[in-house]
Amino acid sequence: MRRPPGTRQPPPRPPRLPRINEVVRLRLDIAYDGTEFAGWAAQSGQRTVAGVLDEALTTIFRVPVRLRAAGRTDAGVHATGQVGHVDVPVDAVANAYSRSSAVGDPEFLPLVRRLGRFLPGDVRVTEIARAPQGFDARFSALRRHYAYRLTTAPYGALPQQARYVTAWPRALDVDTMNAASRDLLGLHDFAAFCRQREGATTIRELQRLDWSRDGELITARVSADAFCWSMVRSLVGALLAVGEHRRPVSWCAELLSATARSSDFAAAPPQGLTLIGVDYPPDDQLAARNLITRDLRTRHDHN
User: Fold this and answer.
1) How many CB atoms lie within 10 A of CB 1?
2) What distance in Å separates the CA atoms of residue 279 and residue 147, rounded to the nearest whole number?
């Protein structure tokens, strides 16, 4: 329609700019050999898993990013089933993807390939996916699963296993260790088995702790809603004393009455420990789980 003479033309609308806070959350599945790392958490002047991954992701996306994980493993501890999430601006994801995508590639597979070229050989991102609504790698988790592996072979661990299996020089009674482990299951205060953090609770629900033997290889499987600092290695260390018959079966249960870390046993060496998996609820329950866990962490400072 023609405008009447003298009518001013309205100014053109400015182009719509993306919001600065428009981000996409990505879930990353991660594996690493912890031997040369000072643990998961970033530390100034130390080589850590989070530090290496943050650097590689920042390089690829060309914006500073910070990865959050389901569990912060200690120095020397490994993972085959670590889970993390990272929030990245939409444009940064699109640009990184377009530079590396190929026709027919599943979404984010090119990013997995690119990370494989940027990362050192002792850490891998095995899968990247768009995180469902409400997902948080730490706060949405239902439970974490660890495996601890030892060998009682007289020659120690085989060279191919030495970084992941603890050589134990004495015989171990697996049946006795299983009997003592059963007394630790359930909701307890595990203060005797945790290195202390100021203001942090040591109450945990231990959901699985059992031992199996395959020849000279002995494996403990440990699952809980969460673990406090050094808890798995401390549980293993105490149970090894039972397995050697240096302590009675009832001793570990008696330790549950302690209010501080016990000095009656040493934590098992880190190289035998691997984080093997993290469980999450169905997608439609993630947000609710997230809120519940955040409330618990706020009131009890769970770690």
Assistant:
1) 2
2) 15
Question: Three-state SS for 207?
Answer: strand
3-state SS assignment for residue 103:
coil
Neighbours of 169 (CB within 10 A): 7
* Cα angle 234-69-82, degrees, rounded to a multiple of 5: 70
Where do we find the tokens 């974490």? Answer: 144
Catalytic-labelled residue, pool 54, 74, 173, 279: 74
Cα angle: 185, vertex 186, 187; to 5 degrees: 135
Walk along the chain (303 residues) and give the pLDDT tens digit of each residue: 555 665 555 555 544 444 455 899 999 999 999 999 999 998 989 999 999 999 999 999 999 999 999 999 999 999 999 999 999 999 898 877 655 555 445 688 989 999 999 999 999 999 999 999 999 999 999 999 999 999 999 999 999 999 999 999 999 999 999 999 999 999 999 999 998 777 678 899 999 999 999 999 999 999 999 999 899 999 999 999 999 999 999 999 999 999 889 999 999 999 999 999 999 999 888 888 877 776 655 544 433
Nearest Cα to Cα of residue 128 among 212, 203, 61, 41: 61
- Say if strands 143-151 and 186-189 run parallel, antiparallel, or are unpaired: unpaired
Q: Is residue 74 annotated as part of the catalytic site, yes or no?
A: yes
Would the pTM count as exceeding 0.70? yes
d(CA 156, CA 96): 46
